[in-house]
Amino acid sequence: xxxxxxxxxxxxxxxxxxxxxxxxxxxxxxxxxxxxxxxxxxxxxxxxxxxxxxxxxxxxxxxxxxxxxxxxxxxxxxxxxxxxxxxxxxxxxxxxxxxxxxxxxxxxxxxxxxxxxxxxxxxxxxxxxxxxxxxxxxxxxxxxxxxxxxxxxxxxxxxxxxxxxxxxx
Length: 169
What we know:
By secondary structure, the protein is mainly α. The chain has 2 domains: about 1-55, no CATH class; about 60-169, no CATH class. It has 6 helices and 3 strands, in the order αααβαββαα.
C-alpha cells in the first residue's frame, strides 16, 4: 500500500500540472478539483507507469529533462521547421524521401518512446515502425542523405538519445 502511494506521486504531480495548464485557472475550485482528480489518477496508474519511483526524486534527471525540452523546442524544432519551409519554398522542392533504419541504444521503454516521439514531432521525419528486438526505428525522412543506419542515427536521433538516456535510463 505504501509503495503504491509512493509510486503515485509522480503521475499525480504530472496530472495536476496538466490539469492546471489546460484549465488555465488557479481558482480555488480548479486547484481543489485538480488535486482530487490528480490523486485519483496517480493512484490508479501508479503500478502501471512507474517502475522505479526513486528516479523521480533525482534532481539531475529533472535538470536533463529541462535541457531536453530546451534543446527540442528551441533548437531541433526550429532547425527542422526552417529546413522544411526552405524545401517547400524552393522552386525545385528538393526532397529525397525514403524510409531509413535508425538504431537506438537506450534501455527503457520510456526513453525509446521519448526518442520516437521527438523524431515524429520534428518536421521532416516520422517513425513508422519500431523493431524492439533489433532496437531499430524505421523512419520516413523527407530528405534521405544516407541509408546507412549509423549516418541516419547521427542525423536524426543522436541528440535526442543523449538526453533521453540521462532522463529515463
